[in-house]
Amino acid sequence: MVTPEQQQELSMKKKQNMITVLFLGFLFCYGAPIAAAENKTAPNTLEEIRLKMDKWIEVQQIISKERKDWQQGKEILQGRLELVKKEIATLEEKIKQSGEGVSESGKKRAALIAENDELKASDKQLVEAISLIEPEVRRLFLLLPEPVKAKVQPLYQRIAEDPSKARVSTAERFQNMLGILNEVNKSNNEITVNYEVHDLANGKPAEVRAIYVGLAQAYYVSVRGEAGIGRPSSDGWKWEASTTAARDILNALEILQGKQTPAFVPLPCKIQ
C-alpha cells in the first residue's frame, strides 16, 4: 500500500522529469540557431542569448513554484495524516473502554442472575412456609373471640381456599399472616370488654357485657344479673350459664370501667 508521502514524492519526480524534458527540448530547438549565430553580427547573438536566458529563468521559476507547491502539499498531507492517527487512537481508546464496559456489564448480569436465582429459591421456601401456616391460621380463627375476629376479618378474607389459586403475591400472603398473628398475639395479652348478644339460661337472647381474658377465657353478665362463662373450642366459643359468678363478674366489670377501686376478684377458670 502506497502512503500519502510516497504518492507526493512520485508526483514530484514526474514533474521534475517533465521539466528536464522541456529543458532538453529547449536546448534542441535553440542549440542550432546559437551555433549558426556565430557567423552573424554581435547584436543578433546577444538578443538570442537574452531570449534564451528569459526562457531559462522562466523554467527555473516553474521549478521553484512546483517545489513550493509540493512542499505545501506535503505539509497538508502530513497534517491530515497526524489527524487520522489521532482519530485512530481515539477510536482504539473508545473500543477499549467499550470492551471494559461490556466486561463490566457481563459481571453485573451474572451477579443479577445469581441474585435472581437466590430470590427464586427464597420465594419457593416462602411459598412452602405459607402453605403450612395458612391452614393453621384458619383453624386458629375459629378459636378467636368475636372482637378479635372482627379485627382480623379483612385480612382473613384474603386467604384463598385453594393456595394454588391465590390471586395475591406470596409477599402479600405472608403479610396477611403476619398481620393476623400480630393482632392475635396482642389480643392474647389484653383484657377486653365487649357488648354482645347471648342466649341466657331461659333460652332467650339478651344483650350482655362480656369480659375476654386473653384468648382462653371469657365471662358475661346481663342487666338482670344473669352470668355465663365462655371458653374456645374447635367449633367456636362455648358458653354456659353460671349462677354463682354473677357478682364477681359484675365487680370485675366495674373495676375495668373505673367505677370501683382495683381489687382482687376471684373468677372461675378452667385450664385445658
Helix-strand layout with pairing:
Blueprint: H1 4-36, H2 42-143, H3 146-156, H4 170-188, E1 191-199, E2 205-213, E3 217-222, E4 227-233, E5 236-242, H5 246-256
Antiparallel strand pairs: 1-2, 2-3, 3-4, 4-5
Helix pairs in contact: 1-2, 2-4, 3-4
Structural notes for this entry:
It contains five helices and five strands, in the order ααααβββββα. The chain has helices at residues 4-36, 42-143, 146-156, 170-188, 246-256; strands at residues 191-199, 205-213, 217-222, 227-233, 236-242. The two termini are 101 Å apart. Strand 4 and strand 5 (236-242) form a beta hairpin. Helix 1 (4-36) runs antiparallel to helix 2, helix 2 crosses helix 4 and helix 3 runs antiparallel to helix 4. The protein has a five-stranded antiparallel β-sheet with strand order 1-2-3-4-5, covered by helices on one side. Helices cover 65% and strands 14% of the residues. The protein has three domains: 4-93; 125-186, no CATH class; 191-256, no CATH class. By secondary structure, the protein is an alpha+beta fold. Mean pLDDT is 81; it is low at 26-43.
